[in-house]
Amino acid sequence: MKKLINGADSIVTDALRGIAAAHPSLRVDLENRVVFRAGAPTPGKVGLVSGGGSGHEPLHGGFVGYGMLDAACPGEVFTSPVPDQIIEATKGVDGGAGVLHIVKNYTGDVLNFEMAAELGGDEGVEVATVLVDDDVAVQDSLFTAGRRGTGATLFVEKIAGALAETGAPLAEVARAAREVNERSRSFGVALTACTVPAAGKPTFELSDAEIELGIGIHGEPGRARAPMREAREIVRTAMDAIHADLPLSGETLVMVNGMGGTPLIELYIVFAEVEAYLREKGATAVRSLVGNYVTSLDMQGFSVTTCSLTGELTRLWDAPVETPALRWGR
Amino acid sequence: MNTEFFAAWIDEIAAVVRARRDHLTQLDAAIGDADHGANLDRGFTAAREALTGASPRTPGALLVLVGTTLIRKVGGASGPLYGTAFREMGKAFGEAAEVSPAELSTALDAALAGVRRLGAAAEGDKTMVDALAPAAKALAQAVRDGLKAEEALEAAAAAAEEGAGATVPLQARKGRASYLGPRSVGHEDPGAASTALLFGALRAAASR
């Protein structure tokens, strides 16, 4: 394993020091491990808090700023944050209008956000929670922990963040966040496994002739293994899974997201195929994002996320945003 | 079993989790996300430090402190689940300075109920419950049979190990391994494996 680290035990702290030094628009609480907007809380505005394991950068710390999150709680690599972090973040962003917790649907994330609510229940902050569960690779049934939250998390954070910036009340912001989640679907494909630094070797083995279909964002194996083939065919498999779950139609927001180890040129090849697939189904990619946004350390591969837009959602997507990883219109 | 006994238990757990850290992480890499060993090692190391700092006076206070520390330090699913298990045991002990095997059995039932409530897992879902539930049952049976503490804990540890081993052919229905569907079959559940280590540590503490 070759990694640019000082030691496997100090990865999160060392990275947070870098984020603090690189982005004066953020205030990083190294003691409690919370990334805040420098000016938090914003009086009268609903505060948005998200968090999850580290290793998905720029998610979530890179999305803290105007028009998006007010605070992010990074856990250890691929491990959800602990309740104390979430409580500190919630208190720190409450501007009197309540706080929205944006939680990806993983057992650990859900439990720790719940424990935070339980242990910190007497802080007097009104909290609403939205669960993101957009991954169609997991069957939502009694026999699984339910669908995972993946790429749609970015859409939820952006659109709910834009609405919160207008001064909308907590219930409204939570409703919009849930609507984005309901209209979004994702599917991920890995060409290689990632290497968790503390483990020191790839989480699973994939030969040059194989790909892993239906992966999540924690380096966990997917639903099935398949032979390696042309990008066009791989994209078709991913898009078929999405289309079968929620038929694609109309104006669509599309993200082709790199898992961390795939060059942009390949992501653009994937996007071209995704766009062609949408047209074939009578849908239009009216807004798009191509790049590394919800990563899985050094994994090679991509995920595609679609969101069926409405006029309101398009306006909120277009609204100004100014964060380290996403910025336009301001 | 007094406060020193339970402090010795936590020492034994910290030692065995450290020794088996890579093994637990490898089990987790197969059907999860390769962090279980590292997380528990961090958690129980922190729990030992917390005990050294606070020197709780009763078994109940000790276990509640351990549980709270795990919740605060571990993260993931295992932090809240193990944390809740220890807190529920501690709360069941109340203010008692010493507890009997029968009281330990009652406390284990409370721990199991807490874990089930939080994780919504049943036996056979391929989780820590598959080791915890048989251990609690075996301890209850040992108490009814009037076994001595050491024998009762031996029975509980053996049942936990057997339960963990029995997760191998199961398909996971809860937690991250459930995403794999049928591909989770053929691997031991890391949470059940670590639960078996905890009961092995309890047996070791009793034979000190």
Overview of the structural elements:
- Chain A has 330 residues and is of the alpha/beta class.
- Chain A contains eight helices and 14 strands.
- Chain A has a six-stranded mixed β-sheet, sandwiched between helices. A six-stranded mixed β-sheet of chain A has the order 9-8-7-12-10-11. In chain A, strands 13-14 form a two-stranded antiparallel ribbon.
- In chain A, α4 (152-165) runs antiparallel to α5.
- The model of chain A has no long low-confidence stretch (mean pLDDT 94).
- Chain B has 208 residues and is mainly α.
- The model of chain B has no long low-confidence stretch (mean pLDDT 95).
- Classes of the chains: A alpha/beta (330), B mainly alpha (208).
Q: Would you give the CATH topology of the largest domain in chain A?
A: Rossmann fold
Largest sheet of chain A: 6 strands, mixed
CATH class of chain B: Mainly Alpha
In CATH, the architecture of chain B is: Alpha Horseshoe
Strand content of chain A: 15-25%
Question: Terminal Cα separation of chain B, in Å?
Answer: 12 Å
Fourth CATH level, the homologous superfamily of chain B: DhaL domain
In N-to-C order, the SSE pattern of chain A is HEEEEHEHEHHEEEHEHEEHEE
**Portion in helices of chain A:** 25-40%
Q: Looking at the structure, what is the overall shape of chain B?
A: globular
Instruction: Sketch the topology of chain B as an H/E string, one letter per element.
Output: HHHHHHHHH
